[in-house]
Amino acid sequence: MKCCAPTPHWPEKPLEQALQHFTITHSILEISHLDADGTLNINVPRLAAAWQLCFDHAQNKTVIVAADPAPSTAAIGHLHQAENVIVSRSINEQYQQQLQSADFVILYTSNECFTWSNRERLQE
After folding, report:
1. Who's near 79: CB < 8 A, 6+ residues apart?
2. In sequence order, what are the beta bridge partners of 85?
3. Taking CA 87 as the corner, what is the angle to CA 83 and CA 89, rounded to the nearest 5 degrees?
4. Separation CA 69–CA 66 (nearest Å)
5. Which of these, 22, 90, 94, 33, lies nearest to 64 by C-alpha position?
6. Domain for residue 81, yes or no?
7. What DSSP state is assigned to residue 5?
């Protein structure tokens, strides 16, 4: 009689299973574009579902907006989910009004970038 080892059962969705057992304390994602309605976009559609899942499960979320945006092809979340948004000095003016309207304030500036923080979350 031939004996063999049992076939391992691989979960269909290993990322979801991992997120049930582990906590993401901080997610830092680079996006290619922030839409006028606050949608966060990336330019790698095959990663969108995984990035969105990590972003949704993170306790703290920071978004880095790319200075030279590539064409956006997939949404991964919304501005209201983020605690922090980092934009380079070269594109800050493009997003300044939108971030202020979404109740973000400048927390830190440097020669290279602006770090905006959600005012409501700063008070928590």
Report:
1. 34, 38, 39, 40, 63, 85, 98, 99, 102
2. 63, 116
3. 145
4. 5
5. 33
6. yes
7. P
What is the dihedral sign for C-alpha 60, 24, 29, 10?
negative
Token pair 């922030």 is found at: 34
Number of domains forming the structure of the chain: 1
DSSP string, 19-79: HHH----EEEEEESEE-TT-EEEES-HHHHHHHHHHHHH-SEEEEEE-SSPPPP-EEEEEG
Q: Are the CB atoms for 73 and 41 separated by under 8 Å?
A: yes
Q: pLDDT tens across 36-70, in order?
A: 999 999 988 888 888 888 899 999 999 999 876 67
Which tokens in the block code for residue 123? 């008070």
Q: Could you read off the pLDDT of 62-120 as tens digits, one per residue?
A: 999 987 667 768 899 999 999 999 999 999 999 999 999 999 999 999 999 999 999 98
In-domain check, residue 6:
no
Give the residue numbers spanning the domain of 97.
Answer: 24-122
Residue 3 lies in a domain: no
